[in-house]
Hints:
about 180 residues, mainly beta, Lipocalin, eight-stranded antiparallel β-barrel, two-stranded antiparallel ribbon, 2 helices, disordered N terminus
Amino acid sequence: MSLLLRLSMCLLVGIPIASFAQESSPETGVTEPILHYFTPDSRRLELVMGKELKAQYSGRTIAGIYDVTRHSDQRYVETLHATGKIQYTEKVFQSAGKWFVRGDNLCFLYDEQPGREHCFYEFRYGDCVISYSDDSPVVGGKPLLTRDWSSVQKFVGKGFRWPDVPASEADEFSCFLSLV
């Protein structure tokens, strides 16, 4: 079943699913990025602000999927220690650095990119969080361009690892929303 058809079916029953495993197009044989067609329902996005960001992320581990491949995969795991340090893994790429909150943005500084801050607006989306770059316009507490997301994340237990298989063979990564 195609990704678009599966997403449409989920929307019809009121349970949007944020992602599926990567798929190849039978016509081209080209593998599409994970979540290639995903556009969050803006009515369901809830901006996480300032102090709540620190409380929500401090000492937690997230598993996420980027909109595109960064270093070696779209899938990553990042631990945000209460001390402000981070550990980041993306398949074979690993990094360390620090995280902090500035205004309503969650920001990261990675050791291999000194001085280059990566800051994001974070939005609750069911049991997931969707990140938007801080240069994406937010109007009335909602992203202006809902398709312009940077990553979809879930909080996971310490030690979580994505399976060592191609993304096309990985289990689905879903964000379940309440029907209310």
